[in-house]
Design brief:
Structural class: mainly alpha
Number of helices: 6
Largest sheet: none
Number of strands: 0
Number of domains: 1
Helix content: over 70%
Length: 143
């Protein structure tokens, strides 16, 4: 039960921190330099997680278990990083950009989840999707 709540709390806290830091990145720094330092530090932090999640087999065995998803995740992470840095440099509001991207991505994933992963949705889920759509309209409403 601990992992259930810890995982969502970690994802929420990290996401909030991510957007705060991305918005705080200096506008005049080169994107590539910024991301190079980010990924170098992330590499070191990831190495430290081996203390909490040690390898059960050899590193070669674990590497052999990987598939295309690791490359896809890499491309997605770089795309997210560049996308948000560009959005914030273009003047997007922190309180609008993050929910807009997150909700839109979630809505794109609904049919993928149903068709490819055979996820089931209920009428309550459909109502939630409708609320998300209304929320997107409200986020983009001109004052």
């Amino acid at each position: 039960m601990f992992l259930f709540y810890f995982s969502i709390a970690l994802a929420i806290a990290s996401s909030a921190l991510y957007h705060f830091v991305a918005k705080s990145t200096p506008e005049d720094v080169n994107f590539t330099v910024s991301l190079l330092v980010t990924y170098a530090v992330a590499f070191i932090v990831t190495l430290l997680t081996f203390f909490f999640f040690p390898i059960q087999n050899s590193l070669a065995t674990e590497l052999g278990k990987l598939n295309w998803a690791s490359l896809g995740l890499s491309a997605a992470v770089v795309g997210i990083e560049f996308g948000y840095l560009l959005m914030y440099r273009a003047g997007w509001n922190l309180g609008i950009a993050a929910p807009l991207v997150t909700v839109t991505a979630a809505l794109i994933l609904v049919p993928i989840a149903i068709l490819l992963f055979k996820d089931k949705i209920s009428w309550v889920n459909i109502a939630g999707i409708f609320v998300c759509l209304v929320g997107l309209v409200m986020l983009n409403w001109k004052r």
